[in-house]
């Protein structure tokens, strides 16, 4: 899928959320699609095997988070003095609200707040991996994944590779 088609999909997903779509508090895997895991409400989620092997999107999310997000939000989603812990946000926020903040940014400036989350909607290094970042943070928020690089991971599926290449324009 192309980057602009992906952005349309994100906007449509957000619109569905405002019309009453399900929240991201459900983490149980209902189905797998080409190496990606989803709840029964079609929300991306993580899959971790008994031996600690994480699904590819969770592993990719670790890599992408540490490439784009950790400078402000701290390593492993733990937060910093500069920005909040995103591992909590992935659990507490509705999935579509999380997507909206990443895509459009958020500004909270008043007498007791001065925080600005920049918009990443035009950054393919974030947008092409947004669900991966989300599932990684969700797994961290549930303490299903320890701090540090996951030691074992599923292989990247052909479907994930094709979608990634299409989003990045390859």
TrEMBL record:
<keyword id="KW-0408">Iron</keyword>
<dbReference type="Pfam" id="PF13442">
    <property type="entry name" value="Cytochrome_CBB3"/>
</dbReference>
<dbReference type="GO" id="GO:0009055">
    <property type="term" value="F:electron transfer activity"/>
</dbReference>
<keyword id="KW-0479">Metal-binding</keyword>
<dbReference type="InterPro" id="IPR009056">
    <property type="entry name" value="Cyt_c-like_dom"/>
</dbReference>
<keyword id="KW-0732">Signal</keyword>
<feature type="signal peptide">
    <location>
        <begin position="1"/>
        <end position="24"/>
    </location>
</feature>
<dbReference type="InterPro" id="IPR022411">
    <property type="entry name" value="C-typ_cyt_methanol_metab-rel"/>
</dbReference>
<feature type="domain" description="Cytochrome c">
    <location>
        <begin position="60"/>
        <end position="124"/>
    </location>
</feature>
<protein>
    <submittedName>
        <fullName>C-type cytochrome, methanol metabolism-related</fullName>
    </submittedName>
</protein>
<dbReference type="InterPro" id="IPR036909">
    <property type="entry name" value="Cyt_c-like_dom_sf"/>
</dbReference>
<keyword id="KW-0349">Heme</keyword>
<dbReference type="GO" id="GO:0046872">
    <property type="term" value="F:metal ion binding"/>
</dbReference>
<dbReference type="GO" id="GO:0020037">
    <property type="term" value="F:heme binding"/>
</dbReference>
